[in-house]
Write the C-alpha cells for this entry.
Amino acid sequence: MPQTIPVAGPWITDLETSYVADAAANAWYGDHAIYHQRFEAAFREAIGMEYAMSLPSCTSALHLSLAALGIGPGDEVIVPDATWIASAAPISYVGATTVFVDIDPLTWCMDARAFEAAITERTKAAIVVDLYGGMPDWQALEEIAAAHKIPLIEDAAEAVGSRYKGRMAGSFGVAGAFSFHGSKTMTTGEGGMLVTGNRKLFERAQFLRDHGRPAGDRFFQNTEVGYKYKMSAMQAAMGLAQTERLDELIRRKREIFDWYRQALSGREDIVLNFEPDDVLNSYWMVTAIFDPSHGIDKLELMGRLSEHGIDSRPFFHPLSSLEAYRDTEQGKRARRINSTAYDISARGINLPSGFSLDEETVGRVCKSLCSILDETGS
Ligand SMILES: *Cc1c(COP(=O)(O)O)cnc(C)c1O
C-alpha cells in the first residue's frame, strides 16, 4: 500500500535538532531563557518589529492582544467569516461579541467594504486574517480602521514571510499573531508569537501572560488574575533554527506552488491562490477553487482524492455555518449576507502543500484532481 500524500508537514534539518538538543541539555538555571531571547530577537529582526513575545500558540497571542486592549463584554469584534475558528475563539474568551463579515472573492481575506458596513459604535477591534498566505487589501482596511479609530489585530498564522507593498505579514495593525503549529510554514511543534510596535500593549501582554505579575516581581506578588502563556526552551530553540532558515522555507513554499501552477496551467475551471503585483504570497496552503459547473461538493472531491491516496482539506467552512456559532444572532445575520464566503468555501480545497513534496508528486496530485473533475458535471 503506497503512503498517502500528506496535506501538510514541516522541514526539519540538523540545525533544528542540534539547537533543540542543546536547549534540552543546557537551557536551565541561569540560562533557562537564552533560547527564548535568541528566538525573539531573530524573529523581531525577520518581521521588522520592535517587540516579540514567544507563546504556546497563535490562539494565546490573539487572546492576549484582545485582553491587553481591554476588550470585554458588550464590545463587538469583527472577523472574516471564512477562517480557522482560532481567529475568532479568543473574542469569546474575553466575553465580547463576534461579528462575521464577508471575504473578497480574489484574496479570500476580509472584504474592506464589508468591514466598513459592519462597524457600529460598539466595534472595539477587528481581527484581520492573511488567509493561506495571501494578503487582504491592507491599505483600504487601514484607512477605514483609522477613520473609525478601530484597532486592527493581524492574524498572520498562515502568512509568515508574506509581504504587502514591501511590508511583512504581522506588521499591520496594533499587534500581529503567528502560529508555529506543526502544519504551519514555520514550526516549533506547537507555538506562537505576538509582535507589536506598541510598548504599552507589549508590557500589558507580558503582565497578563505571567499570571498578572508586575515586571521584575520576584516575590510572587500578583496584582491581577492573569494567564499562563509560555513556550519551553526546546520549542524556542526549534523556532530559532526555523527563523534562521525562514527565507529557505518561503522559497520552497513558492517553488511548490509554482509546480502546481505549471501543472494546472490551462485549466480555466481551477483557480489557485491569488498574488497581485504588490504582494508576495508565501503560499502556506495551495488552494484550488473549482468551477461550479462541476456540480461536485468539496467533501465529495476530498473523498475521491483520498481514494487516489491524496490527503486534502476543505476550504474553511464559514464560521457562521458551524454549530459553535450557528444559532447566535450574529451567526444568523452572517448567513444571510456573506455570500462570497459561502460560495468560495463550498467549492474550495487545500491540496498537499507539505515540505516533503517533490515535483513528480505534485504532478501526480494534479493528474488525479483533473481526472476526477473531468468525470463530473459539464
Ligand atoms: C493555525 C491558525 C491559528 C491558530 O494557531 P495555533 O497556534 O494553533 O493557536 C489561528 N489562525 C489561523 C488563521 C490559523 O490558520
Summary: Residues 57-59, 83-84, 86-87, 129, 155, 157-158, 179, 181, 192 surround pyridoxal-5'-phosphate (CB under 6 Å). The longest helix spans residues 246-263. The radius of gyration is 21 Å.
